[in-house]
Amino acid sequence: MFLPRLGVAIWTTTPWTIPANAGVAVNDKLVYAVVQVHEPPETGLVEDRSGKGGKNNIKFGSGLHNPDIQYLVVALDLVEALQSKWHVKLEVKGTLLGSELEHSRYTHPLFQRECPVVVGGNYITTESGTGLVHTAPGHGQEDYVTGQKYNLPMFSPVDDEGNFTVEAGDFQGMSVLGDGNMAVVEALQKASHLLLQEAYVHKYPYDWRTKKPTIFRATEQWFASVEGFKEAALNAIADVDWFPPQGENRITAMVSGRSDWCISRQRTWGVPIPVFYNVNTGEPLMTQETISHVQEIIRQKGSDAWWYLEVQDLLPEEFRKEADQYIRGNDTMDVWFDSGSSWAAVLKTRKDLKWPADVYLEGSDQHRGWFQSSLLTSVAVQGSAPYKKVLTHGFVLDERGLKMSKSNGNGIDPEVVIEGGKNQKEAPGYGADVLRLWVASVDYTGDVMIGDRILKQMSDIYRKLRGTLRFLLSNLHNFNPELDTIQYENLPMIDKYALFQLANVMDEITESYRCYHFYKFYQLIQKFAVVDLSNFYFDTAKDRLYVGGTKNFTRRSCQTVLAAHLLCLVRAIAPVLPHMAEDAWQHLPFSHLLKDGSKCDYVFESGWPLIEDQWRSLSADNVEYWKALMQIRTEVNKVLETARGAKLIGASLDAKVLLSTANEALLSRLIQHTKEDPDKLCRIFITSQVEIIRSIEEAKSLDINYTGIYNLEGQGDLWVGVSKADGSKCERCWNYSPKVGFFPNHPSLCERCHSVICEGAEIKYQTATVV
């Protein structure tokens, strides 16, 4: 009853695609209404709906007055909104489902051809428009998929320059993004098929180089089918180690959903696809003979030869007589095919390299790019992936988390970071190692930030690491590993514990490198070298290094441990901080020998440090005890700080520490720990004396002003007291001792320093006698 005066109302944001219209898509689950148009506004009337004068003008078209179309099909849910927008009354004459509209036909508004109504995808909604979508398979991905489903013609009347072709009729030669767009709108108005025209703000893809809207069009391309080896590609993915692990899920999903690979591009540069076309039939000519011939030409003359040589020179001998019947193809190879086959051009042709590669490294966007193209080409030819491991990283942002760009002026030049800017005060040079340390410090699996503040922090950490190495080097100046090393079984417990910690840290650092978790290396080396060593072992070591005699056992045992730390840490930091590591290596106070007995001149010749098994042999009980001891040291420092704040003491050597605990096993170990240097508790706490009280009740009864009770994890309560140290201060070691003043020849020395001084005097006397 509505035919032939029934039309379908569609909307589009790209009028230039109307000449390529091949169908109208509906949502099969939506309800549509047949409406009759009443009281249309005057044709050409312009209404300003922005309230700002001309910013959102709406122009009513002649289609609302077309006597040949009195009824329109629109989505039922949009009738009220369309009445308001069109300034008309829409009378609903009937309703039907979108599925009932399928396969009905309409006449193209500008060309005398019939097109079908088809069912589209979920992109058809009632959020805007009319609920019916103009479909041009030659100009959009969703339209293309729908067109394939219904075998719609693939109109794409736009040339390489972005102008309409002869297929577009009267629009031929017009720019689709320029005068051609408006020409289509005017043609619709002239044909009384334009309902309304308005300025509409929406998202649309722009070319990042030219900053112009992108033109989508269907063109003839070369495709490589992936279906034949997709399963093999998925199996190859599973055989690769992915860092981070989620990279495997990402590339697996991409390859699983891929059936074809478009390997041709229309560019004025690149590797040409070696195909010839018959000038009359357009049939392609590509055989093993033609490919081999072109391959040899490019091998000798480069890929440009494809463009400057005559066709007859590009064809092999058997086709040259027919050269006038062929033209060369202008398509170039997809650059991802070029880079994706680099494994063949590099790994397979260089004797010093091997296939597959140990690791491929690129940004996280390359799962759809280089990683995938390399995988597909290699699996297709070799049957396996071209890499054993794949590591992906994020992108560098400024300190505010913004993307770096020239237009924002927030880019950071690595050369300026390393060497400094023109104004060295405002942009100091940090050196390559600081930049490398920053790279190691961040979790590269996501986007990372860098800026002046961050670089200054890295510079501070760098200097602290350098200070750690300087301490190690300076305290080994008279140490000969071959003569002075103390065997592990003879080392004091504190030194065994230090080597135990070193072994554990080196194991973790080795694992972090193996897994490419460089940020874990950074965290480990910072905590261990800058915090743990400096705050504990170095602090406790200073007394025996500076106060003990040069050949004193406790000093040699400490130097044995320091040498082990130096040789491990220098080589551990070398991959990240090569300049610092080499600088330290060149200042080793002793020679490090290789397995063949020769001197190792450079740090990278030394190999990765091998940890001795006995360093890890500390018993579980001893490990737990030393953990408890570190907790006790922390609590002791708290009470010392309180006493220092109250002016009872100045330095910690002014103090005597009193300890008590209800844990009998711990109490027994603490008593043992007060007897032998350098394991004495006073050396560990850096105080002059430590006294163990048998019970907490007894300890509480003492007249001690500065105390505290703390709960040790897994060990029970600990009572800590601090008083002034007994005796007088030794002018040499600054420790307090009741024995100061006891020795007539050195009344200002304690018993330990007196022994050292007298030993030194005896050695000098004996030396003089021998001479």
What does this protein look like?
By secondary structure, the chain is of the alpha+beta class. Helices cover 38% and strands 16% of the residues. It is built from 25 helices and 29 strands. The strands form ten sheets. The chain has a four-stranded mixed beta sheet with strand order 1-6-3-7. Strands 8-9-2-10 form a four-stranded mixed beta sheet. Mean pLDDT is 91; it is low at 761-771. One of its GO terms (cellular component) is mitochondrion. Residues 105-160 form the Leucyl-tRNA synthetase editing domain. It is an enzyme of class 6 (ligase). Keywords: Aminoacyl-tRNA synthetase, ATP-binding, Ligase, Metal-binding, Nucleotide-binding, Protein biosynthesis, Zinc.
Task: Describe the SSE topology.
Layout: E1 6-8, E2 23-26, E3 31-38, E4 46-48, E5 57-60, E6 71-75, H1 79-86, E7 89-97, H2 98-101, E8 105-107, E9 114-119, E10 133-135, H3 141-150, H4 179-190, E11 196-198, E12 223-225, H5 230-238, E13 241-243, H6 246-256, E14 260-262, E15 264-265, E16 276-278, E17 284-285, H7 288-301, H8 305-308, H9 311-314, E18 326-328, E19 332-333, H10 335-340, H11 342-347, E20 357-363, H12 370-382, E21 387-393, E22 396-397, H13 414-419, H14 432-441, E23 448-449, H15 452-474, H16 481-484, H17 493-514, H18 518-546, H19 553-573, H20 578-586, H21 620-645, E24 655-661, H22 664-672, H23 681-685, E25 689-692, H24 696-700, E26 706-712, E27 716-724, E28 728-729, E29 736-737, H25 751-770
Parallel strand pairs: 1-6, 2-9, 13-21, 20-21, 22-23, 24-25
Antiparallel strand pairs: 2-10, 3-6, 3-7, 4-5, 5-11, 8-9, 12-14, 15-19, 16-17, 16-18, 24-27, 26-27, 28-29
Helix pairs in contact: 5-6, 5-12, 14-15, 14-18, 15-18, 17-18, 17-19, 18-19
